[in-house]
Design goal:
about 425 residues, Dihydrodipicolinate Reductase, domain 2, 6-stranded parallel beta sheet, 12 helices, 15 strands
Amino acid sequence: MKRRSFFKTTGALVSPLVIPASVLGREEKTAPSERVTIGLVGAGGKGTGLMQDFYSRCKDEVQFVAIADPDVKHAERGKQLAEKYWGQGCKTYKDFRELCDRDDLDAVVVATPDHWHALAALEAIRKGKDVYGEKPLTHLFREGKVLYEEVKKHKRIYQVGSEQRSSVYFRIAAEVILNGLVGKIQEVQVGLPGGETTEEEGKVAQPIPDHLDYDFWCGPSHKLPYHKDRVHFNWRWSLAYGGGSLMDWIGHHNDIAHWGLGVELSGPIRVEAKNFRYPEKGMYNNPVDYEVRSEYEGGYSVVISNKYGGGVRWIGEDGWVRVSRGQIEASNKDWIREKTDRGSIKAYNSPDHRRNFVAGVKTRKECICPAEIGHRSVTPGHLSFVSDTLKRPLKWDPKNEMIVDDQEADKLLNKLDYRGDWAL
Protein backbone atom coordinates (compact mmCIF):
# COMPACT_ATOMS: atom_id res chain seq x y z
CA MET A 1 0.00 0.00 0.00
CA LYS A 2 1.39 3.39 -0.97
CA ARG A 3 1.89 5.95 1.80
CA ARG A 4 -0.70 8.32 0.28
CA SER A 5 -3.26 5.50 0.21
CA PHE A 6 -2.40 4.59 3.78
CA PHE A 7 -3.08 8.11 5.07
CA LYS A 8 -6.34 8.28 3.10
CA THR A 9 -7.67 5.01 4.49
CA THR A 10 -10.21 5.71 7.22
CA GLY A 11 -9.44 4.10 10.55
CA ALA A 12 -6.16 2.63 9.32
CA LEU A 13 -3.82 1.27 11.96
CA VAL A 14 -0.62 3.20 12.44
CA SER A 15 2.17 1.85 10.30
CA PRO A 16 5.47 1.47 12.16
CA LEU A 17 7.02 3.53 9.37
CA VAL A 18 5.19 6.68 10.42
CA ILE A 19 5.30 6.45 14.21
CA PRO A 20 7.43 9.37 15.46
CA ALA A 21 10.89 8.24 16.53
CA SER A 22 10.37 9.83 19.94
CA VAL A 23 7.50 7.45 20.65
CA LEU A 24 9.77 4.49 20.00
CA GLY A 25 12.49 5.93 22.21
CA ARG A 26 14.87 6.49 19.32
CA GLU A 27 16.88 9.60 18.60
CA GLU A 28 17.17 9.33 14.81
CA LYS A 29 15.20 11.65 12.56
CA THR A 30 12.22 10.53 10.49
CA ALA A 31 13.23 9.73 6.92
CA PRO A 32 11.95 12.27 4.34
CA SER A 33 9.82 9.56 2.69
CA GLU A 34 7.96 9.03 5.97
CA ARG A 35 7.05 12.66 6.61
CA VAL A 36 3.59 14.18 6.23
CA THR A 37 3.79 16.27 3.05
CA ILE A 38 1.97 19.60 3.28
CA GLY A 39 0.89 22.34 0.88
CA LEU A 40 0.31 25.88 2.17
CA VAL A 41 -2.50 28.02 0.76
CA GLY A 42 -1.96 31.64 1.76
CA ALA A 43 1.63 32.62 2.51
CA GLY A 44 1.02 35.88 4.35
CA GLY A 45 2.00 36.53 7.94
CA LYS A 46 -0.23 33.81 9.38
CA GLY A 47 0.70 31.25 6.73
CA THR A 48 4.44 31.62 7.15
CA GLY A 49 3.95 31.83 10.91
CA LEU A 50 2.21 28.46 10.86
CA MET A 51 5.02 27.02 8.76
CA GLN A 52 7.46 28.15 11.45
CA ASP A 53 5.21 26.62 14.13
CA PHE A 54 5.13 23.27 12.34
CA TYR A 55 8.90 23.40 11.97
CA SER A 56 9.54 24.20 15.64
CA ARG A 57 7.05 21.60 16.95
CA CYS A 58 7.40 18.69 14.53
CA LYS A 59 10.02 19.51 11.92
CA ASP A 60 11.08 15.89 11.41
CA GLU A 61 7.54 14.63 10.90
CA VAL A 62 6.38 17.11 8.24
CA GLN A 63 7.64 18.79 5.09
CA PHE A 64 6.10 21.74 3.22
CA VAL A 65 6.51 21.05 -0.48
CA ALA A 66 4.07 23.47 -2.15
CA ILE A 67 2.92 27.08 -1.68
CA ALA A 68 -0.09 28.79 -3.31
CA ASP A 69 -0.74 32.53 -3.17
CA PRO A 70 -2.01 35.07 -5.75
CA ASP A 71 0.70 37.43 -4.51
CA VAL A 72 3.92 36.27 -6.14
CA LYS A 73 6.03 37.91 -3.44
CA HIS A 74 4.20 36.04 -0.71
CA ALA A 75 4.46 32.74 -2.58
CA GLU A 76 8.18 33.21 -3.10
CA ARG A 77 8.70 34.13 0.55
CA GLY A 78 6.89 30.94 1.56
CA LYS A 79 9.02 28.89 -0.82
CA GLN A 80 12.24 30.34 0.57
CA LEU A 81 11.16 29.57 4.11
CA ALA A 82 10.17 26.00 3.23
CA GLU A 83 13.48 25.37 1.49
CA LYS A 84 15.39 26.91 4.38
CA TYR A 85 13.78 24.40 6.72
CA TRP A 86 13.46 21.27 4.56
CA GLY A 87 15.72 21.74 1.55
CA GLN A 88 15.11 22.30 -2.15
CA GLY A 89 12.05 21.20 -4.06
CA CYS A 90 9.18 23.43 -2.93
CA LYS A 91 6.96 24.58 -5.82
CA THR A 92 4.81 27.72 -5.98
CA TYR A 93 1.37 28.29 -7.51
CA LYS A 94 -0.96 31.24 -7.95
CA ASP A 95 -4.10 29.07 -7.99
CA PHE A 96 -4.64 26.81 -4.96
CA ARG A 97 -6.57 24.35 -7.13
CA GLU A 98 -3.36 23.39 -8.92
CA LEU A 99 -1.72 22.75 -5.57
CA CYS A 100 -4.64 20.54 -4.45
CA ASP A 101 -4.40 18.53 -7.69
CA ARG A 102 -1.05 17.12 -6.57
CA ASP A 103 -1.36 13.50 -5.52
CA ASP A 104 1.79 13.59 -3.39
CA LEU A 105 0.28 15.84 -0.70
CA ASP A 106 -1.05 14.39 2.55
CA ALA A 107 -2.42 17.66 3.93
CA VAL A 108 -3.12 21.31 3.16
CA VAL A 109 -2.83 24.29 5.51
CA VAL A 110 -5.36 27.03 4.69
CA ALA A 111 -4.18 30.42 5.99
CA THR A 112 -5.96 32.72 3.57
CA PRO A 113 -8.23 35.69 4.33
CA ASP A 114 -11.62 34.53 5.64
CA HIS A 115 -13.46 34.76 2.31
CA TRP A 116 -11.28 31.97 0.89
CA HIS A 117 -11.44 29.56 3.85
CA ALA A 118 -14.36 27.48 2.58
CA LEU A 119 -13.47 27.12 -1.10
CA ALA A 120 -9.80 26.36 -0.47
CA ALA A 121 -10.57 23.81 2.24
CA LEU A 122 -13.32 22.15 0.20
CA GLU A 123 -10.99 21.81 -2.78
CA ALA A 124 -8.42 20.07 -0.60
CA ILE A 125 -10.96 17.81 1.11
CA ARG A 126 -12.52 16.70 -2.16
CA LYS A 127 -9.07 15.90 -3.50
CA GLY A 128 -8.41 13.59 -0.55
CA LYS A 129 -6.28 15.87 1.62
CA ASP A 130 -6.55 16.49 5.36
CA VAL A 131 -6.77 20.16 6.34
CA TYR A 132 -5.47 22.50 9.00
CA GLY A 133 -7.65 25.58 8.45
CA GLU A 134 -7.53 28.95 10.14
CA LYS A 135 -10.43 30.34 12.14
CA PRO A 136 -13.15 31.38 11.77
CA LEU A 137 -13.99 28.13 10.01
CA THR A 138 -15.68 30.06 7.20
CA HIS A 139 -16.61 33.62 6.24
CA LEU A 140 -20.29 32.79 5.68
CA PHE A 141 -22.62 30.57 7.69
CA ARG A 142 -23.75 28.38 4.79
CA GLU A 143 -20.13 27.67 3.86
CA GLY A 144 -19.46 26.28 7.34
CA LYS A 145 -22.33 23.82 7.27
CA VAL A 146 -21.32 22.54 3.83
CA LEU A 147 -17.68 22.30 4.88
CA TYR A 148 -18.14 20.19 8.00
CA GLU A 149 -20.59 17.91 6.18
CA GLU A 150 -18.02 17.37 3.41
CA VAL A 151 -15.33 16.60 5.99
CA LYS A 152 -17.55 13.80 7.34
CA LYS A 153 -18.51 12.57 3.87
CA HIS A 154 -14.90 12.29 2.70
CA LYS A 155 -13.66 11.04 6.08
CA ARG A 156 -10.99 13.69 6.35
CA ILE A 157 -9.05 14.96 9.36
CA TYR A 158 -9.69 18.66 9.99
CA GLN A 159 -8.08 20.89 12.58
CA VAL A 160 -9.46 24.41 13.05
CA GLY A 161 -6.71 26.84 14.05
CA SER A 162 -8.31 27.65 17.42
CA GLU A 163 -5.03 26.85 19.12
CA GLN A 164 -6.12 28.00 22.57
CA ARG A 165 -7.61 24.52 23.01
CA SER A 166 -4.09 23.17 23.07
CA SER A 167 -3.10 25.47 25.94
CA VAL A 168 -3.08 24.17 29.51
CA TYR A 169 -4.87 27.15 31.09
CA PHE A 170 -7.83 26.91 28.75
CA ARG A 171 -8.10 23.16 29.26
CA ILE A 172 -8.04 23.56 33.05
CA ALA A 173 -10.74 26.24 32.91
CA ALA A 174 -12.93 24.05 30.70
CA GLU A 175 -12.58 21.12 33.12
CA VAL A 176 -13.63 23.29 36.08
CA ILE A 177 -16.87 24.18 34.30
CA LEU A 178 -17.49 20.73 32.81
CA ASN A 179 -17.30 19.21 36.28
CA GLY A 180 -19.73 21.73 37.74
CA LEU A 181 -17.37 23.21 40.33
CA VAL A 182 -18.82 26.72 39.99
CA GLY A 183 -22.37 25.43 40.31
CA LYS A 184 -25.24 26.30 38.02
CA ILE A 185 -24.05 28.72 35.33
CA GLN A 186 -25.70 32.14 35.41
CA GLU A 187 -23.77 34.06 32.76
CA VAL A 188 -20.67 33.75 30.60
CA GLN A 189 -18.77 36.85 29.51
CA VAL A 190 -16.64 36.57 26.37
CA GLY A 191 -14.34 39.53 25.80
CA LEU A 192 -13.03 40.28 22.30
CA PRO A 193 -11.19 43.30 20.83
CA GLY A 194 -12.99 46.21 19.22
CA GLY A 195 -13.00 46.90 15.49
CA GLU A 196 -10.83 49.19 13.37
CA THR A 197 -11.33 52.51 11.61
CA THR A 198 -9.39 54.47 9.01
CA GLU A 199 -9.44 57.93 7.48
CA GLU A 200 -8.85 56.44 4.01
CA GLU A 201 -11.99 56.49 1.86
CA GLY A 202 -10.80 53.91 -0.66
CA LYS A 203 -13.33 54.96 -3.31
CA VAL A 204 -10.77 55.39 -6.07
CA ALA A 205 -8.65 52.37 -6.91
CA GLN A 206 -4.91 52.60 -6.40
CA PRO A 207 -2.55 51.02 -8.97
CA ILE A 208 -2.45 47.26 -8.43
CA PRO A 209 1.09 45.93 -7.88
CA ASP A 210 2.39 43.69 -10.68
CA HIS A 211 3.09 40.88 -8.22
CA LEU A 212 -0.56 40.63 -7.08
CA ASP A 213 -3.43 39.07 -9.03
CA TYR A 214 -6.07 41.18 -7.30
CA ASP A 215 -9.02 39.71 -9.21
CA PHE A 216 -8.08 36.22 -8.00
CA TRP A 217 -7.36 37.54 -4.50
CA CYS A 218 -10.95 38.84 -4.31
CA GLY A 219 -12.21 35.52 -5.65
CA PRO A 220 -15.84 34.81 -4.72
CA SER A 221 -16.27 38.09 -2.82
CA HIS A 222 -16.99 41.61 -4.04
CA LYS A 223 -14.16 43.25 -5.92
CA LEU A 224 -13.76 46.50 -4.02
CA PRO A 225 -11.48 49.23 -5.42
CA TYR A 226 -7.91 48.13 -4.76
CA HIS A 227 -6.26 49.79 -1.79
CA LYS A 228 -3.12 48.56 -0.10
CA ASP A 229 -4.91 48.77 3.28
CA ARG A 230 -7.69 46.44 2.12
CA VAL A 231 -5.35 43.48 1.62
CA HIS A 232 -2.69 41.66 3.66
CA PHE A 233 -3.89 41.69 7.28
CA ASN A 234 -6.19 44.71 6.93
CA TRP A 235 -8.64 42.72 4.81
CA ARG A 236 -10.43 41.73 8.04
CA TRP A 237 -11.91 45.22 8.52
CA SER A 238 -13.94 44.99 5.28
CA LEU A 239 -16.97 42.74 5.58
CA ALA A 240 -16.48 41.54 2.01
CA TYR A 241 -13.36 39.67 3.13
CA GLY A 242 -13.56 39.28 6.92
CA GLY A 243 -15.80 39.93 9.90
CA GLY A 244 -13.85 42.45 11.93
CA SER A 245 -12.54 41.61 15.37
CA LEU A 246 -15.83 39.90 16.21
CA MET A 247 -15.35 37.09 13.69
CA ASP A 248 -11.56 37.25 13.94
CA TRP A 249 -11.64 36.34 17.64
CA ILE A 250 -14.94 34.56 18.25
CA GLY A 251 -13.39 31.28 17.08
CA HIS A 252 -10.91 31.62 19.95
CA HIS A 253 -12.75 32.76 23.06
CA ASN A 254 -16.34 31.70 22.30
CA ASP A 255 -14.92 28.32 21.32
CA ILE A 256 -13.49 28.01 24.84
CA ALA A 257 -16.81 29.16 26.35
CA HIS A 258 -18.63 26.40 24.43
CA TRP A 259 -15.99 23.86 25.42
CA GLY A 260 -16.53 24.46 29.13
CA LEU A 261 -20.32 24.55 28.79
CA GLY A 262 -20.37 21.25 26.92
CA VAL A 263 -22.28 22.72 23.97
CA GLU A 264 -19.59 22.26 21.32
CA LEU A 265 -22.00 20.47 18.96
CA SER A 266 -25.04 22.51 19.87
CA GLY A 267 -25.57 26.22 20.37
CA PRO A 268 -27.89 28.96 21.61
CA ILE A 269 -31.66 29.09 21.30
CA ARG A 270 -31.85 32.87 20.95
CA VAL A 271 -29.39 35.47 19.69
CA GLU A 272 -29.68 39.24 19.74
CA ALA A 273 -27.22 41.85 18.51
CA LYS A 274 -27.01 44.97 20.64
CA ASN A 275 -25.08 48.23 20.47
CA PHE A 276 -23.35 47.51 17.16
CA ARG A 277 -21.49 50.65 16.11
CA TYR A 278 -19.82 51.04 12.73
CA PRO A 279 -17.23 53.56 11.47
CA GLU A 280 -18.80 56.88 10.50
CA LYS A 281 -16.25 57.46 7.74
CA GLY A 282 -13.48 55.67 5.91
CA MET A 283 -13.49 52.47 3.86
CA TYR A 284 -13.79 49.95 6.72
CA ASN A 285 -17.28 48.70 7.59
CA ASN A 286 -16.60 46.29 10.44
CA PRO A 287 -18.38 46.79 13.80
CA VAL A 288 -16.20 48.93 16.04
CA ASP A 289 -18.29 48.14 19.14
CA TYR A 290 -20.66 45.22 19.55
CA GLU A 291 -22.57 43.04 21.97
CA VAL A 292 -23.94 39.60 21.11
CA ARG A 293 -26.32 38.23 23.71
CA SER A 294 -27.07 34.52 23.31
CA GLU A 295 -29.44 32.47 25.46
CA TYR A 296 -28.96 28.72 25.97
CA GLU A 297 -31.23 25.89 27.08
CA GLY A 298 -29.53 25.74 30.47
CA GLY A 299 -31.14 29.05 31.39
CA TYR A 300 -27.95 31.12 31.13
CA SER A 301 -26.65 33.76 28.73
CA VAL A 302 -23.35 34.07 26.88
CA VAL A 303 -22.51 37.71 26.20
CA ILE A 304 -19.83 38.38 23.58
CA SER A 305 -18.62 41.97 23.59
CA ASN A 306 -15.63 44.26 23.27
CA LYS A 307 -16.65 45.92 26.56
CA TYR A 308 -15.04 43.07 28.53
CA GLY A 309 -11.35 42.35 28.90
CA GLY A 310 -10.08 39.67 26.53
CA GLY A 311 -10.89 36.10 27.58
CA VAL A 312 -13.75 34.10 29.06
CA ARG A 313 -15.43 34.39 32.46
CA TRP A 314 -17.96 31.77 33.59
CA ILE A 315 -20.09 32.95 36.51
CA GLY A 316 -21.93 30.32 38.53
CA GLU A 317 -23.93 30.16 41.74
CA ASP A 318 -20.93 28.83 43.65
CA GLY A 319 -18.08 30.81 42.13
CA TRP A 320 -16.39 31.91 38.92
CA VAL A 321 -13.45 31.19 36.64
CA ARG A 322 -11.75 33.53 34.19
CA VAL A 323 -9.15 32.55 31.59
CA SER A 324 -7.25 34.45 28.92
CA ARG A 325 -3.95 33.98 27.16
CA GLY A 326 -1.28 33.48 29.78
CA GLN A 327 -3.63 33.98 32.72
CA ILE A 328 -6.17 31.99 34.73
CA GLU A 329 -7.95 32.96 37.95
CA ALA A 330 -10.87 31.67 39.97
CA SER A 331 -12.87 32.34 43.13
CA ASN A 332 -11.33 29.12 44.48
CA LYS A 333 -7.64 28.80 43.60
CA ASP A 334 -7.64 25.06 44.29
CA TRP A 335 -9.81 24.49 41.22
CA ILE A 336 -7.16 25.77 38.83
CA ARG A 337 -4.03 24.10 40.16
CA GLU A 338 -2.55 22.04 37.34
CA LYS A 339 -2.42 18.75 39.26
CA THR A 340 -5.82 19.11 40.94
CA ASP A 341 -8.39 16.39 40.26
CA ARG A 342 -11.30 18.50 39.06
CA GLY A 343 -13.63 15.54 38.61
CA SER A 344 -14.45 12.63 36.36
CA ILE A 345 -14.79 14.69 33.18
CA LYS A 346 -11.42 15.12 31.49
CA ALA A 347 -11.12 17.56 28.61
CA TYR A 348 -9.25 16.52 25.46
CA ASN A 349 -5.58 17.09 26.27
CA SER A 350 -3.52 18.31 23.32
CA PRO A 351 0.05 19.41 24.13
CA ASP A 352 0.35 21.35 20.86
CA HIS A 353 -2.14 22.25 18.12
CA ARG A 354 0.16 21.48 15.18
CA ARG A 355 1.41 18.22 16.64
CA ASN A 356 -2.19 17.23 17.37
CA PHE A 357 -3.01 17.71 13.68
CA VAL A 358 -0.02 15.69 12.49
CA ALA A 359 -0.97 12.89 14.89
CA GLY A 360 -4.50 13.01 13.47
CA VAL A 361 -3.21 12.67 9.91
CA LYS A 362 -1.19 9.62 10.90
CA THR A 363 -3.59 7.83 13.24
CA ARG A 364 -6.96 9.11 11.91
CA LYS A 365 -7.93 10.15 15.44
CA GLU A 366 -10.15 13.25 15.48
CA CYS A 367 -8.30 16.45 16.36
CA ILE A 368 -9.07 18.65 19.36
CA CYS A 369 -10.95 21.19 17.21
CA PRO A 370 -12.66 19.49 14.25
CA ALA A 371 -14.67 21.33 11.62
CA GLU A 372 -18.14 21.09 13.14
CA ILE A 373 -16.96 22.36 16.52
CA GLY A 374 -15.26 25.26 14.77
CA HIS A 375 -18.47 26.03 12.88
CA ARG A 376 -20.66 25.90 15.98
CA SER A 377 -18.37 28.18 17.97
CA VAL A 378 -18.69 31.01 15.43
CA THR A 379 -22.41 30.53 14.64
CA PRO A 380 -23.51 33.17 17.21
CA GLY A 381 -21.34 35.65 15.31
CA HIS A 382 -22.99 34.83 11.98
CA LEU A 383 -26.41 35.16 13.62
CA SER A 384 -25.51 38.47 15.22
CA PHE A 385 -24.91 40.15 11.86
CA VAL A 386 -28.36 39.03 10.70
CA SER A 387 -29.91 40.21 13.96
CA ASP A 388 -28.20 43.59 13.66
CA THR A 389 -29.22 44.00 10.00
CA LEU A 390 -32.88 43.27 10.72
CA LYS A 391 -32.85 44.95 14.16
CA ARG A 392 -34.56 42.07 15.93
CA PRO A 393 -33.66 39.03 18.05
CA LEU A 394 -33.57 35.62 16.42
CA LYS A 395 -34.87 32.29 17.70
CA TRP A 396 -32.40 29.56 16.79
CA ASP A 397 -32.87 25.81 16.41
CA PRO A 398 -29.36 24.43 17.10
CA LYS A 399 -30.28 20.86 16.16
CA ASN A 400 -31.48 21.71 12.66
CA GLU A 401 -29.35 24.87 12.39
CA MET A 402 -32.11 27.18 11.24
CA ILE A 403 -33.75 30.41 12.38
CA VAL A 404 -37.24 29.71 13.70
CA ASP A 405 -40.35 31.56 12.46
CA ASP A 406 -38.41 34.13 10.44
CA GLN A 407 -37.90 33.19 6.78
CA GLU A 408 -36.40 36.56 5.91
CA ALA A 409 -33.69 36.14 8.53
CA ASP A 410 -32.99 32.50 7.62
CA LYS A 411 -32.66 33.41 3.95
CA LEU A 412 -30.24 36.20 4.81
CA LEU A 413 -28.20 33.87 7.03
CA ASN A 414 -27.77 31.33 4.23
CA LYS A 415 -27.04 33.86 1.47
CA LEU A 416 -23.82 33.32 -0.48
CA ASP A 417 -23.82 36.00 -3.22
CA TYR A 418 -20.65 34.69 -4.85
CA ARG A 419 -18.99 36.60 -7.69
CA GLY A 420 -18.49 35.06 -11.11
CA ASP A 421 -18.42 31.28 -11.46
CA TRP A 422 -17.34 30.53 -7.90
CA ALA A 423 -19.64 28.07 -6.12
CA LEU A 424 -19.64 25.65 -3.21
